[in-house]
Amino acid sequence: MKTIKSPIFIILLTVLLTNITILDAQEKKDTVTSIVPTISFSYLNLSNDSIVLTANLFVKKDQGVFAIQNAVIEFIAKGGNESKKIGQAITDDEGNAIIKVYAKTGLPLDKEGKSIFTAKFSTKGKYLSASESISAKQAKLSVNFSKVDSVRYILVTATQVDSKGMIKPIGKIPVTINVPRLFTPLKIGEITLEEDGTGKFEYPGNIVGDSVGNIIVIAKIEENDLFGNVQGQSSISWGIPKQYYLAEMPTRELWTPIAPLWMIVTLITMLTGVWAHYIYAIIQLVFIKRSSRPKKL
Amino acid sequence: MEQSASKEALLQKFAPQIEKTSFLASIWIIFLLCIIGVGVYAFICQVTQGHIVTGMRDNVVWGIYIVNFIFFMGMSYAGAIISGALHLFRTEWRKPIIRMAEYLAIISLLIGPGYILLCIGRLDRLYYLALFGRIQSPITWDVIAISTDIFGCLIFLYLSILRDIANLRDFKELKVPQWRKKLYSFLSLGYTGTPEQEKRLRRATDIMAAMVIAIAIIVYSVLAWIFSVTLQPGWHSTIFGPYFVIAAVYSGTGVLILTMYVFRKAYHLEHFVTRKHFVAMGVVMVVLAALFGYFTFSDYLTKWYGSEKNDESLIKILFSQYYWSFIFSNYIGVLVPLLVVGIPKLRTIPNITFSALIVVVALWFNRYLIVIPTLESPYLPIQDSRPEYLLYSGTWVEYALMAAGVALFCLLFTLASKFVPVINVSEMSDAPRDQREEGLFNTEESLL
Questions:
Q1: Helix axis angle, B64-89 relative to B98-119, nearest 10°?
Q2: What sign has the CA pseudo-torsion B406, B409, B412, B415?
Q3: What pTM does this model have?
Q4: What is the mean pLDDT of residues B320-331?
Q5: Nearest by CB to B204, which of A27, A256, A285?
Q6: Residue B288: left (phi > 0), alpha (psi -120 to 50), or beta?
Q7: Separation between Cα atoms, residue A240 and residue A242, nearest integer Å
Q8: Which domains does chain A have, with CATH numbers?
Q9: How far is B402 from chain A (nearest CA, A)?
Q10: Highest mean pLDDT among A16-25, A206-215, B402-411
Q11: Average pLDDT of chain B, as a whole number
């Protein structure tokens, strides 16, 4: 039969080489010299008069968003003509730099009682500088509980501090009521506060707490133009005690002490069958060896 | 034992391969040892510096090592299944190639598990597996299965070469060192070919041939279950067991054809390993190509049509990031043997060998695409988003150890062929008697 020198093999070889080239190209490193990072900045005012400032430093690439670690972020507060550095932090593995400041330490305020907070990253290596600002007025949310004729209420009070340091109620503002769960808080209701800065929400009664029924209730003002994020919380034993159930038939979990019976029986049966045949073959070899010895007369 | 004339001639033909190592063969062995040396250096780097020198991270915890493990184990099971089946079917054309299949089975089986040891950290705690191993774990199933398989394949290989060892012992003109003669004498167990010895040997070989087929199927299915019992996208499939077995035999057939080609050229076996053998193995490869294509299509079709979010995302990655690898492994790797062996005019030895090479490389990529993209698309969002955590890329250490594994495979094959002839001399020389054997599945060779 004639040998055919088909062009198909040249095509296939080309495809193969193309493939290798593409794989090689995947490994080549990014050659960008300067990178523009971005800061995502958030403000959270807690009920203990503390403010948590979180700056997330990252870069956007074609493959997605990548955090920048070990970068120094400066936090600055400004009010009127006064500007004050309130701290600095180093970004963690996820690019987060977090500081906590206390309102009592005397943050600069403008005429309306607001402060402008700035998170600033200075140029370092191939990364260019970046900054982000957020303005907010100090506020406070407090959570209390009351019971009227077996009906249980969650009471929320919101107050603010003006430029003179006077405490005033915050009225006509939406507040969400939440309880913490495994990953994120579970929203159980929403109310709008009265003019006097108070509001009440009827407790649903079907919330699961810890093993003795304790629950934490969190009230939140979220993404407000004037106050930013404000959060207050309190705990009470109104929850349903958590029940821990044991699996009825543990079978293959890491903590089961022994394998299921069917598995042990199958394994032993199979191994016995296989090794019995091995032994049979070896016995045949032994007989071959014995038969080679000269027989005694 | 009396040497028949044809046997004498065959032994004289193969004696130089056993007695001497040519200059080219020496260069070849030194070259392989150099590659293994680089692998040893890479291994030392890995042990001293830790797995940070590999491309594996918290997210993509399996890389090229596992791909190579699956690949070598697949070749081993293919060797076992092919040699076992050829023996049981008593096909006449098996004689010149069955020994290569047997060598393929055991040599791959000795190298494959080594990659598991390279993949896991803290080798000093390896004995914990024996002390605290849990039968519920598929990893334990694999350890038991592979160790059982190694014993089975060793016994089968020993039974298969026993007659040739006895022939070498009795071949007076063989010029080998005294220690090798003693070794042949010891290993031959005093076999002289008496009717009783022959009967016992045939019985044991038949039993072990059937066993190695059964064990190969079970062991490779267990390997597939390590993947499929998880809920990972791309792995959680009921057909993974048979799919792995088919893929293993398919790639192993390709490696066997390559081996036939190399030994045919190296030892001038043109009169023994003929076009007929290549076509016969080519037909086996075509049948397996069709089955492999069918299983692959079935697996991906059901995943794609089911539109499960993570499966969909995986298929999207395969058709974008790994486009050429996917096309090569699942389309070209199936179509090339179908065309080359399917069209009679293309059925030449170089063409069949080239298509076998395509199959082997394609199947390596197939295993890569099974392991890596799935680990790059986990169910839970990745907590640490550094690029090396998101995407896997093999390092020089991994590629060096991969090359060392391939070099060791070639070296052991070379050394094995220098210990016992790579062609089964006993079976080649007693064809008429062999045809009268009562095998389990006597067939006519005209089938192919």
A1: 160
A2: negative
A3: 0.67
A4: 92
A5: A285
A6: alpha
A7: 6
A8: 38-137 (2.60.40.10), 139-236 (2.60.40.730)
A9: 16
A10: B402-411
A11: 87
Q: Quick check: helix, strand or coil at residue B216?
A: helix
What 3-state class would DSSP assign to B269?
Answer: coil
Least Cα separation, residue B160 to chain A (angstroms): 12
Contact between B322 and B270 under an 8 Å Cβ cutoff? The reply is no
Residues with Cβ within 8 Å of A171's Cβ and at least 6 positions away in sequence, in order, are A193, A194, A195, A196, A197
Distance CA A11, CA A240 (A): 70
CA distance B163 to B354: 34
Residue B423 CB: number of other CB atoms within 10 A?
A: 24
In terms of DSSP H, where are the helices of chain A? 8-27, 261-291
Q: ipTM for the complex?
A: 0.84
Arithmetic mean of pLDDT, B416-443: 65
Which two tokens mark B113?
A: 């598990």
Query: pLDDT tens digits, residue range A38-87?
Result: 999 999 998 888 899 999 999 988 777 889 989 999 999 998 888 889 89
Alpha carbon A117 to chain centroid, angstroms: 24
Q: pLDDT tens digit string along B171-193?
A: 888 888 889 889 999 998 988 88
Q: Does B191 touch chain A (CB under 8 A)?
A: yes
Cα B127 from Cα B149, distance rounded (Å) = 20
Q: Distance between CA atoms of A117 and A101, rounded to whole angstroms?
A: 11
The answer on pLDDT for B1 being more than 60 is no
- The percent of chain B in helix, strand and coil, each rounded to the nearest 5, is 75, 0, 25
Q: Which of A3, A22, A278 sits opposite B151 (nearest CB)?
A: A278
Which strand (E) or helix (H) includes residue B287? helix B275-306
What are the structural domains, with CATH classification, of chain B? 5-123+136-420 (1.20.1630.10)
Q: Is B111 exposed, middle or buried (0-12, 13-18, 19+ CB in 10 A)?
A: buried
